Amino acid sequence: MLPFADLSEAQQHQPALAEAVQDDIINGLSKIADLRVISRTSVSSYAPDQPRNLRAIAQSLGAGHLLEGTARRDGQKVRITAQLTDARRGTSLWTVNYERDLAHVFGMQGDLLEKISSQLHATISADEKTAIDEQPTHDLAAYALYIQGKTLITSVSSAQVNDKMLQAVQALDQAVARDPKFYLAWCQLAAAHNYIYFFGFDRTAARLASAEAALQTAIRLRPEAGETHLAKANFLYRCHLDYDRARAELAQTQRALPNNSEAFELAGYIDRRQGLWNESARSLQRALQLDPRNGFVLQQVALSYEDLRQFRAMAAALDRALELAPRDLETRFTRAYVDYEWRADTRPLHQTIEALLAENPNSAPDLADQWLYLALSERNPAAAARAIAAIPATGISTDIN
Prior knowledge:
CATH class of the largest domain: Alpha Beta
Helix content: 55-70%
Number of strands: 4
CATH architecture of the largest domain: 3-Layer(aba) Sandwich
Strand order of the largest sheet: 1-2-3-4
Number of domains: 3
CATH superfamily of the largest domain: TolB, N-terminal domain
Order of helices and strands: EHHHEEEHHHHHHHHHHHHHHHH
Strand content: 5-15%
Structural class: alpha+beta
C-alpha cells in the first residue's frame, strides 16, 4: 500500500488525514494471514506528489498488487478514494469511494479490506474480521500524534536513539492524554520507554516503571490483541532480557499479526542472543520480506551473516542498505569492514574511514571503535592514538540488538 495523497485544504492547520487512513488500512491488512503486506516503513519514500512507476515500485517491494488512494477533508466530512492495481500488468482492478463523517473516518476500513481480499482471493477469518473492525480511536489528532511517535521509533538509528525516543515519548504522551483508551498509542509509548532503558540512556527504576505502566494500560484495554502481545515481548526482551517469555509472546503476536515485520525482527534478535545463528538469519530475512526497504534490518541481518562467517551474504545485505541510504555512515564503514574480515584486506576500510573523517571530522566518535581496530591491525600507533582520543566519554557502544 503506497502513501495516500492528502487533498484537504489548509493541511498545515489540521492532522494529516491521509497518513492516518493509510496507517489504519495497513494495520488492518497486517492481520490477514492470506495476504503478504509490505510494511509502512518500506513504502513511506514513495511520496504521492512524485511520479510513480508502479511496475518498478512493485519489483522493488516484491509486490504483485499496489493500493493507492486519496483523502480529502471538507469541514466535518471526509472523502476517501482507493484504487487497487495489478502492478505486473499495469492495470487497475477497481476503484472505490467512501464518504464519512470525520468522527467515523476509520469505519470504512473493514469494507475496504473485504473488497481487497475478495479481489485477491484471500479469506478473512472470523477472528481477523473482529480485529479489523476495531476502531483504534475517534480522535484524529490523537492518531496523528501516534503516527508521529511511531515514525520516530521506527526510523531510529544508533546515533539518534535517545533524542528520537524522547521525542516519541512526548508525542505519545499527548496522544494518550487526548484519548486514554487508545491502546495502540499505549503500546508504542511502552516501546519508546523500553528503548530508552535498553540502550542505556536511562536505566533508572522510574524509566522501567514508565514502560511497565504503559504496557499494563495496553493489557487492560486489549489483553489479547496482537499488538499487546508484541508490546509484552518487547518489554520482556528489552527491559528484563527474558528471552523465553518474550519468544512465547511473539508466537502469539505472529498468529494475530502474520504480516508484522517487527515480530520477526525481534525473534531474530532473540535467536541471535541464544546462539541460534541460522534461525536468526531466517527470522530477519522474513522481516525483510515484509519490510524490504528497512535499512536498519538490513544492517542487522548482515551482523547475523557475519556471525555465521557468510561474508558474501553479509556484503549483499549491506549493498542493499547502501542503495537505500548511500551516505549512511554506519553502513559505509561496515561494508568496508567485510573485506577486512573476509579477505584480510584493510584497504577498503582504511579508505572509507579516511573519507568519512574528511567529509565530517565530527564523525570521529562514531568511527572510533573501527578506526582503533584498523590502526592496531595496520600496526599504526599514531592512528591508534587519534582513534583513542576520539572515543567518547561514555565509551564505545556495541551491537545494540
